[in-house]
Amino acid sequence: MSTVKMKLRILPPLVMLIFGFFMYSLNLLLPFGNFDFFGRRELAIFLVALAFLVITIALFQFSRVKTTTNPINLKKTSSLVTNGIFKYTRNPMYLGMLLILLGFGLKLGNAFNTLLAAGFVYYMNHFQIKKEEQALMELFGKEYTLYCKATRRWF
């Protein structure tokens, strides 16, 4: 189980903030791509509120079974959570972060921010989630394999 400790240098919330900074910068620097529609502000607020609800539920579920939320040192993981919100998404906290970025992108009103949100998904899949999945496979084996087959990575 030596590979269980991940060699990450950037925590996922910080990755989200970095992508948010890029979205803000793109909005300032790009002279085109702006959009508006009826209810844009309300939809942005709804997405961010939904994000916080999803993240809070996931954190509560982890807390209830007394397992870690630390994505860097997964050997402290004591339980595989597969019920509740984890029945619908294997990564509700990352989904919540994506919803925050999408809400922020809507608030900014620049269509090119969707490309940065897609970049966040790519980054998380490639540099975070795949490594977590390998570690969880080592910890939980067949149980985790069956969970992956039954539940999507994002939604």
TrEMBL record:
One Pfam family it belongs to: PEMT
Entry annotated with the keyword Transmembrane helix: yes
Spans through the membrane: 12-31, 43-62, 94-123
UniProt entry keywords in alphabetical sequence: Membrane, Methyltransferase, Transferase, Transmembrane, Transmembrane helix
Cell location: Endomembrane system
Single GO MF annotation: methyltransferase activity
Membrane topology: Multi-pass membrane protein
GO biological process: methylation
Source organism superkingdom: Bacteria
Stored InterPro entries: Phopholipid_MeTrfase (IPR007318)
Primary localization: membrane
GO cellular component: endomembrane system
PANTHER family cross-referenced by the UniProt entry: PROTEIN-S ISOPRENYLCYSTEINE O-METHYLTRANSFERASE, SLR1182 PROTEIN
Protein name, entry field: Protein-S-isoprenylcysteine methyltransferase
Native organism: Flagellimonas eckloniae
Classification of source organism: Bacteria, Pseudomonadati, Bacteroidota, Flavobacteriia, Flavobacteriales
